[in-house]
Amino acid sequence: MLTRGSRFIPGPSRIRNCYECLRGYRDALEKFHIAYNPDLVLPPALSADEGSQVMSNFLAKNIAFDAVFGFTETSLIGAKSVIQKRGLHIPEEVCVCCVSGTALCTLVHPTITAVEQPVEQMTAEACRLLMAKISDSDKQVEDVVLRGEIMERESTVKRDL
After folding, report:
1. Banded model confidence at residue 4, pLDDT cuts 50, 70, 90
2. Neighbour-count burial of 96, counting CB atoms closer than 10 A to its CB (0-12 exposed, 13-18 middle, 19+ buried)
3. Burial of 70 (0-12, 13-18, 19+ CB in 10 A)
4. Which pLDDT tens digit goes with each residue over 129-155?
5. Which residues are within 8 A (CB) of 3 and not within 5 positions of it... i.e. 6 or more apart?
6. What separation in angstroms does the CA of 148 have from each of 33, 51, 53, 85?
């Protein structure tokens, strides 16, 4: 789904996951030998209203694009709604994908491709870390990295770069 015309709607930089997601976006561009262009990163959005506003402002600039990647499904659903209201077809003209996909991704048309987080494993790890800290308040902070899984749905098509 990563294309030379991809746009990214991040979350606020004050949220660590948002920072990590932006880093992942940059790493993916590098992997596919696509230069990072900060102009392709749209303003942050978390809610559907914010996603709608960001996409409306972007579309008003008449800049060509063929994909949008969002930090949350709620902001992406807002952006997707504006894309569709403007008469663009998903996925034929614009692919959409997000991180932190939930059931919301399957309740819209077309359904949204998402990098889904291992929520049960995240919960178990959070409880384990919390219990360890309660048992020993001097325990060092432990970073845990869990892998998400890409759930391809109707909003994307495979394209050659």
Report:
1. low
2. buried
3. buried
4. 999 999 998 888 888 888 888 899 999
5. 66, 67, 95, 159, 161
6. 23, 23, 28, 31
Instruction: Output the CA torsion sign for 148, 151, 155, 161.
Output: positive
pLDDT tens by residue, 107-128: 999 999 998 888 899 899 999 9
pLDDT of 99? 85
What does the alpha-carbon distance between residue 117 and residue 73 come to, in Å, rounded to a whole number? Answer: 12
Quickly tell me which residue has 């003209």 as its tokens.
93
- Which residues partner with 9 through β-bridges? 70
What pLDDT was estimated at residue 86? 96
- CA neighbours within 13 Å on the CB side: how many for 6? 24
Residue at token pair 């230069």: 35
Task: Identify whether the C-beta of residue 75 lies closer than 8 Å to the C-beta of residue 9.
Answer: yes
